[in-house]
């Protein structure tokens, strides 16, 4: 139940205007009919992906580890999406009835989260739009996961994932499996895994969630911003190499493994994650740019190295500067 009026006792769940890492908690709050402020921050569009809406507040909220999503519940200020989900689970008695159920809930949540992470990594990566990569994801990662979830559900004698009533695991499983089945062709696969399909349907039809799920899927995007390979290539080709880097597409940097060499004062590019005729040009541009040029071009933006499609933690400007 989203509320727009501010009441100091009301829960606040802050995240981008996307489903992303906040959605399982949103499902839980809607299921429990908890009034909460669904604070959604807007991210700007191409090419800057302006994050000011969030950055203007980021360090003013009293969060120990400022990030999105965050939850404010009175004097409790939490970040880390799974900590938020498990906290809400405990608060609303949705973490099982004993240690065994709780362990199963956590196992299922983490398993579902891992699947979603692989899906997201592909979507945000340079090959996210490639039909071949999507097909490969469906045939390998998704198939293996659906097989395992299907086997779990076929053995499970409860009405929901670990009990005869929903727990935190149901919200996480629903959201993560549902969104990981978004590529064309996934739904054909889902027909084969009837227990998973029936589970998704059961959650979708919960009277407490039915309307919310329809509304959220129609209005709130699943991903933050889609970064497509063609956009990178187009912009990179249009760049004037003499002046590069000039204007900012911060996600150029996301595709690279960057290492700040304090001695030479340069960012060393060790890997570029897609094959292109422009590769050598791009590499030489970046190699020849000083760290100051890069910071002028990319301003406050973080750089997130991705190696072999695995995103490494976000490095702040000062982390790179200090080479720590
Ligand atoms: N491990 C954290 C990751 C949080 C994270 O990476 N948040 C992204 C959005 S998914 C973000 O944009 N955070 C805002 C920031 O870095 O300032 C979690 O699960 O909550």
UniProtKB/TrEMBL annotation:
Reactions this protein catalyses: RX + glutathione = an S-substituted glutathione + a halide anion + H(+)
SUPFAM superfamilies reported in the protein's UniProt record: GST C-terminal domain-like, Thioredoxin-like
CDD domains: GST_C_Sigma_like, GST_N_Mu
GO biological process terms held by the UniProt record: glutathione metabolic process
Domain GST N-terminal residues, every copy: 9-96
Keywords of this entry: Transferase
First-tier enzyme category under EC: transferase
Enzyme Commission number: 2.5.1.18
Source domain of life: Eukaryota
Annotated family: Belongs to the GST superfamily. Mu family.
Protein purpose: Conjugation of reduced glutathione to a wide number of exogenous and endogenous hydrophobic electrophiles.
Protein's recorded name: glutathione transferase
């Amino acid at each position: 139940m989203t509320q727009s009026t501010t009441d100091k006792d009301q829960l606040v769940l802050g995240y981008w205007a996307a489903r992303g890492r906040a959605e399982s908690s949103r499902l839980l709050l809607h299921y429990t009919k908890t009034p909460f402020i669904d604070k959604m921050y807007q991210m700007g569009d191409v090419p800057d992906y302006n994050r000011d809406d969030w950055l203007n507040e980021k360090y003013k909220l009293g969060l120990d580890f400022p990030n999105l999503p965050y939850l404010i519940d009175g004097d409790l200020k939490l970040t880390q999406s799974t900590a938020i989900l498990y906290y809400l689970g405990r608060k609303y008695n949705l973490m099982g009835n004993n240690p065994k159920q709780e362990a199963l809930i956590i196992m299922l949540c983490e398993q579902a989260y891992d699947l979603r992470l692989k899906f997201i990594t592909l979507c945000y990566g340079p090959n996210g739009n490639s039909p071949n990569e999507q097909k490969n994801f469906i045939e390998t990662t998704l198939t293996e996961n659906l097989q395992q979830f299907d086997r779990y559900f076929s053995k499970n004698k409860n009405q929901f994932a670990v009990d005869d009533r929903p727990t935190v695991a149901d919200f996480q499983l629903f959201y993560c499996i549902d969104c990981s089945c978004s590529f064309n062709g996934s739904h054909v696969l889902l027909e084969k895994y009837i227990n998973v399909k029936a589970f998704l349907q059961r959650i979708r039809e919960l009277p407490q969630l039915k309307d919310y799920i329809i509304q959220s899927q129609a209005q709130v995007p699943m991903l933050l911003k889609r970064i497509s390979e063609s956009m990178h290539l187009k912009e990179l080709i249009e760049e004037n190499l003499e002046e590069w880097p000039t204007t900012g597409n911060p996600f150029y940097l996301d595709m690279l493994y960057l290492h700040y060499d304090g001695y030479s004062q340069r960012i060393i590019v060790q890997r570029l994650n897609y094959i292109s005729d422009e590769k050598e040009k791009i590499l030489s541009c970046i190699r020849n740019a000083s760290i100051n040029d890069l910071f002028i071009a990319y301003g406050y933006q973080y750089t997130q190295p991705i190696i072999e499609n695995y995103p490494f933690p976000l490095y702040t400007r000062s982390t790179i500067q200090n080479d720590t």
